[in-house]
Every structure is written in C-alpha cells, then in structure tokens.
Amino acid sequence: MVVAPDEGLGLVVFSNTGGLDGRGAAEPLAAALLRRLLSLPDQAIRMDIPPRPETWSELCGWYSSDPGPVTNLFMRALWGAGAEVVVRGGHPLLKPLTPVPAMRRGMRLYPDDPDDPWVFRVEIPEYGKHYRVVFTQPEGGEMRLLMEVLSFRKRPDVRNPRRWVNGALAAGTATLAVRRLRGRAAKAVTPKVCRS
C-alpha cells in the first residue's frame, strides 16, 4: 500500500509473489503506479537539488531504534543496532549497524526537497528500493531520523555499539599478541633438557 495524502490518492496492489522481504512485484509496481498518477518522473533519486553541507554536522552521529514492540522483524533485523550518519567522499552516508554486508557499506543521502535541507532519499539497489529519509528535531528535543516504518533517535556517540565492538576486538587482538610474545619469550629462555 502506498499513499499520497495531500493528493487524496492511495493505491493497494495485491500479489502472491515475493517472500517476507518485500522484494516481490507488488511494492515496485505500487510505487511506479503512484508516481505515474502523480505525474512524477520514474527516477526516484533527484540529482537537481544541490547539497547543503552546512547541515551535515548536525546530522552526523549514531541513531538507535526507538524502544517498543517490534512489528516488522525483517526491517529491525536489517537495521541491527541502528544507523550512523557519516560523511565520506564529500557526501553524507546512512550506514546501518547490521550484520548484512551489502547494507554495511552505507547508502548515500541524496537531497530530496529543494525547500527542506533535512529531507533526503536513499537507494538500496540490491532490493530495488528507494526510501525517503527525514531528519527532524523538535524544539529542545533530540534529533530523530524517520524512514519508512522506522524511527531512530540520535544517541551519544559514547553509547554507539560499533565503538564498543571495535574496542573489544582491538583489546582481544592485543591480548592474543601479548600471549604469543610471552609464549615465544618463554620458549627462548627454557633450557633444553637432555634425556638419557
């Protein structure tokens, strides 16, 4: 189901193809039909809107899922421990903290509204999807990231699980290196015993 409330339009497409991941024919068909009804171009990513780098520092950071019941297990599993917004190669990226390799590399945030610097669109070509990503910050509140059926809240970087996992991996690697050095040192000083 896709809707355009301001236009008074809604569209439902039923299909018996695709699995729980939503890659069946219904979703792209519904989006394409709605775009045609609204006289929008087929290309969902707009390249005619200039970037606004002055807003990127406010967007960057770690966002975790809102607490509450999980109503879409696929989406929650796909996004794992939330998402990070980083700037790489002169572009803002949305990077899910997920075990899915195709998602970890990140998705470029393309400006999607010429009048609103907080509205972006991402493309996930592996799934044939385009999503609108909206950042919002109520007066005196926390920055939020809204995408499709997901809502994320910006959290302090010190609580970012990626940093904790990277720290634990570094500590484990250092511990193994020290143990190997100690083992080599012990072998070097252990005298050989002759047996008769």
Report on this model:
- By secondary structure, this protein is α+β, with helices and mostly antiparallel strands.
- The chain folds into 2 domains: 1-42; 45-181, Beta Barrel (Lipocalin).
- It is 29% helix and 26% strand.
- The longest helix is centred in the C-terminal third of the chain and has 29 residues, at 161-189.
Report the CATH superfamily of the largest domain. Pab87 octamerisation domain
Find the structural class using helix and strand composition: alpha+beta
**Order of adjacent strands in the largest pleated sheet:** 6-5-4-3-11-10-9-8-7
Biggest beta-sheet profile: 9 strands, antiparallel
- CATH C-level class of the largest domain is Mainly Beta
Essential attributes:
196 residues; 9-stranded antiparallel sheet
Short précis:
By secondary structure, the protein is an alpha+beta fold. It has helices at 26-37, 56-59, 73-79, 101-104, 161-189, and strands at 2-4, 9-11, 61-65, 83-88, 91-96, 107-108, 110-111, 119-124, 129-136, 144-147, 150-155. It is 29% helix and 26% strand.
Reconstruct the topology from this structure.
Blueprint lengths: L1 E3 L4 E3 L14 H12 L18 H4 L1 E5 L7 H7 L3 E6 L2 E6 L4 H4 L2 E2 L1 E2 L7 E6 L4 E8 L7 E4 L2 E6 L5 H29 L7
Antiparallel strand pairs: 1-2, 3-4, 3-11, 4-5, 5-6, 7-8, 8-9, 9-10, 10-11
